[in-house]
Specification:
Layout lengths: L7 E4 L5 H10 L4 E4 L3 H9 L3 E2 L3 H5 L4 E4 L4 H8 L5 H4 L5 E4 L5 H12 L4 E4 L2 E2 L1 H7 L2 E6 L2 H12 L2 E8 L3 H29 L4 H9 L6 H12 L8 H18 L4 H15 L10 H8 L5
Parallel strand pairs: 1-2, 1-4, 2-3, 4-5, 5-6, 8-9
Antiparallel strand pairs: 7-8
Length: about 300
């Protein structure tokens, strides 16, 4: 642990937060964490982190506070109120929220934090669990240039592509666009898989050659095996993609952008949840196409 590195508090140790916080520990940072599940706290301690008993305890001595929780309500729950981050962090601390939430929630949080002398960046990520583990996440950031510059060394221990996209909320807007592209891409792949299989083609061979051409994508590279093996163990749950499709369709409506294909895929994601598949990986969009094509899944 280096004395001249900022002290970090980490709130939220889920599928993404646990490996990300561990990458900071490996990079030499002093990380104090808090989350609701005891086994996640045990994992942090085993990795060399310090476990706090509350949000207040985690953040009180921190120079930088990083949050990684599921959605806007959780960000609000951990940030506001007497036991929250804003009431207990030191003035001058930097709060980096890496959750994927509505752009408006990020704007409001930055405003409320400024009143306490706390600087804020919204810094949602793309790359899923694998990207978190390998520290190759894409990190889209909203906020002030000076705060981004201060945060950069920390973000570089977590990801590979780190870009300031504009003022507060901009990171969330770009993340919403990311989730739109990913969902539509997975849906297109899923439709191709069903079409190929029903046509009697060697699916593995077909996906390999498709991925070498213009139809190739990071999505297909990452999800090919999920499709081939029907392995839908979550790297990113349908429940969370459902939340994100709500964010992007709502935000697009607010700015007057039409998302016709995005709206259809949002409904397909919603239908998967209604079928009880919310806990599966988003590559399980394949199951929806199979059902529409007559399969009993």
């Amino acid at each position: 642990m280096s004395d001249n590195l900022p002290k970090i508090a980490w709130i939220g140790l889920g599928i993404m937060g646990s490996p990300m916080s561990e990458n900071l520990i490996k990079a030499g940072y002093d990380v104090t964490g808090f989350t609701l599940e005891q086994d996640k706290l045990d994992r942090l301690a085993a990795a060399g982190g310090t476990v706090a008993g509350s949000i207040a305890e985690a953040v009180q001595a921190a120079d930088v506070i990083i949050t990684m929780v599921p959605a806007s309500p959780q960000v609000e729950a951990i940030s506001y109120g007497p036991d929250g981050i804003l009431e207990n962090a030191r003035p001058g601390a930097l709060l980096i929220d890496m959750s994927s939430i509505t752009p408006q929630t990020s704007v409001d949080l930055a405003k409320a934090a400024a009143d306490k002398g706390i600087r804020v960046l919204d810094a949602p990520v793309s790359g899923g669990e694998a990207g978190a583990i390998e520290a190759v996440l894409s990190i889209m950031v909203g906020g002030e240039q000076a705060d981004f510059d201060a945060a950069r060394p920390i973000l570089e221990a977590l990801g590979k592509t780190i870009v300031l996209c504009g003022p507060h909320g901009s990171g969330q807007t770009v993340k919403a666009a990311n989730q739109l592209i990913v969902a539509v891409n997975i849906q297109a792949c899923a439709e191709a898989v069903v079409f190929l299989e029903k046509s009697g083609v060697d699916l593995k061979a077909a996906l390999d050659v498709l991925n070498g051409g213009l139809a190739g994508s990071t999505v297909l590279t990452r999800k090919k095996d999920n499709f081939l093996q029907r392995d839908f163990k979550p790297g990113f749950r349908i429940d969370l993609h459902h939340k994100d499709m709500g964010i992007v369709t709502d935000a697009a409506r607010n700015v007057g952008a039409a998302l016709p294909v995005g709206a259809v895929v949002a409904q397909l994601v919603a239908s998967l949840r209604a079928q009880g598949d919310g806990g599966l990986d988003h590559s399980a969009l394949l199951r929806a196409v199979e059902r529409l094509s007559g399969a009993q899944v």
